[in-house]
Amino acid sequence: MKSKSDIGVIGLAVMGENLILNMASKGFTVTAYNRSTDKVEKFVTGRAEGKTIRGAYSVEELVESLAAPRKIMIMVKAGAPVDATIESLIPHLDEGDIIIDGGNTHYPDTIRREAYLKEKGIHFVGAGVSGGEEGALTGPSIMPGGSLEAWQHVKPIFQGISAKVEGGEPCCDYVGENGAGHFVKMVHNGIEYGDMQLLCEAYQIMKEVVGLSADEIHQVFKQWNTTELDSYLVEISRDIMAFKDEDGEPLVEKILDTAGQKGTGKWTGVVALDLGVPLTLIAESVFARCISALKEERVEASKILAGPEKSFTGDKAAFIEDLRQAVLASKIVSYAQGYTLMREAAKEFNWNLNYGGIALMWRGGCIIRSAFLGDIKKAFEKNPELNNLLLDDYFKETVVNAQSSWRNVAATAIANGVPAPCLTAALNYFDGYRTARLPANLLQAQRDYFGAHTYERTDKPRGEFFHTNWTGRGGDTASTTYDV
């Protein structure tokens, strides 16, 4: 073992431990530290025994064990614990040392911390890490942002431990300035919310409308995973549908239908509203979890509020293919919305994001890894200024060809009273985006009528605003105009 460690990691929960083991397996020497030092002792004498991992039982011991510039990765709960950990480190660090936050941190906190530490001469990296327990151990997707100078020092470690795709390319590269890494990870998690909900809606439609059993749905997901929908989430959904409880019945049907969340999907929706980006599918996926949490209310409402009788008389195989096309088209819309959000955030925060590179980072190791991320990378390589994925030739053709199936599935779900919030939100976005004239002209007239908010005219240049005295009782004074 080297006399000085290459990196230190604070936090020995599942992700922290597995990242340390991953680093050691790639030839790096790591110092492990946890505020509860009994966890350090348990780790170094257990899973870490015999590996290039040493334990530290104080912050001072941790810092002293590291080679310069010192690199310390924080893997603790987001929020105040990260700030407290940073404050405990500062007195022991030298100028040029590096602190890395690898948790699910909200990007404004990363922007704040990067500026704060920069004043003290300490580099800060906010790195989103995706892949869960298995990914952390065998190769996650890592999205680092912050100090570009620090990136040169942590690059060999992060790219060494990350997942690899074709040609050995690492699913890790520098994302952008200050909070860009955590922002991209947040968008990743928002897309993850949407992908999961789309598969849940497909499952419910297959079960309640088409009448398929868990084993039959398992076979559907298995087949889907050989198509453009090949992805980690389809793969695990396939396995979940086949998993039996001790009595031989599908375990999935015994799991309570109320979902939790850690907040990253909500953050994505909130910043989309702040930036005026129509992130409708991801927002609906968050609200779907919210309505699932109203379990007791829903049970009572089901006894009072009647819906249509469910019936299906068509060709099951043909409808399942329609459903696959609908899920594929909706998934494309989800990514299109997510990329639009990143583009607007880059303008707002002056980040230089590599959109094709982000797709590559998501190709392996992370929860949303899927086959068509390679097509996203190609789209941005072909046109780095692409405004919307739906305008790329491949995605345009895929979605346009799927729309008949998509509409059939949406109509069938609605006719049978089965909620499909993400499938239908995606279709509504597609229809809204491709519509040259929307009814917002009436909306602007309404706003001007009751609040003198003004409007633009089709027969006048953009940027010229007008107000009408609609009732004859109003004056000529107009309210100030602003853009969302």
TrEMBL record:
Residues reported to bind NADP(+): 11-16, 34-36, 76-78, 104
The entry's keywords: Gluconate utilization, NADP, Oxidoreductase, Pentose shunt
Positions annotated as active site in the UniProt record: 185 (proton acceptor), 192 (proton donor)
Binding residues annotated for substrate, in chain numbering: 104, 130-132, 188-189, 193, 262, 289, 447, 453
Catalytic activity as recorded in UniProt: 6-phospho-D-gluconate + NADP(+) = D-ribulose 5-phosphate + CO2 + NADPH
Superkingdom, taxonomy of origin: Bacteria
Pathway given in the UniProt record: Carbohydrate degradation; pentose phosphate pathway; D-ribulose 5-phosphate from D-glucose 6-phosphate (oxidative stage): step 3/3
Gene3D superfamilies membership: 6-Phosphogluconate Dehydrogenase, domain 3, N-(1-d-carboxylethyl)-l-norvaline Dehydrogenase, domain 2, NAD(P)-binding Rossmann-like Domain
EC number: 1.1.1.44
Record GO terms (molecular function): NADP binding; phosphogluconate dehydrogenase (decarboxylating) activity
Domain named 6-phosphogluconate dehydrogenase C-terminal: residues: 181-471
Task of the protein: Catalyzes the oxidative decarboxylation of 6-phosphogluconate to ribulose 5-phosphate and CO(2), with concomitant reduction of NADP to NADPH.
InterPro entries associated with the record: 6-PGluconate_DH-like_C_sf (IPR008927), 6PGD_dom2 (IPR013328), 6PGDH_C (IPR006114), 6PGDH_Gnd/GntZ (IPR006113), 6PGDH_NADP-bd (IPR006115), 6PGdom_BS (IPR006184), NAD(P)-bd_dom_sf (IPR036291), Pgluconate_DH (IPR006183)
GO biological process: D-gluconate metabolic process; pentose-phosphate shunt
Subunit structure: Homodimer.
Record's keyword annotation contains Oxidoreductase: yes
Stated family: Belongs to the 6-phosphogluconate dehydrogenase family.
Protein's name according to its UniProt entry: 6-phosphogluconate dehydrogenase, decarboxylating
Record SMART domains: 6PGD (SM01350)
Pfam families: 6PGD (PF00393), NAD_binding_2 (PF03446)
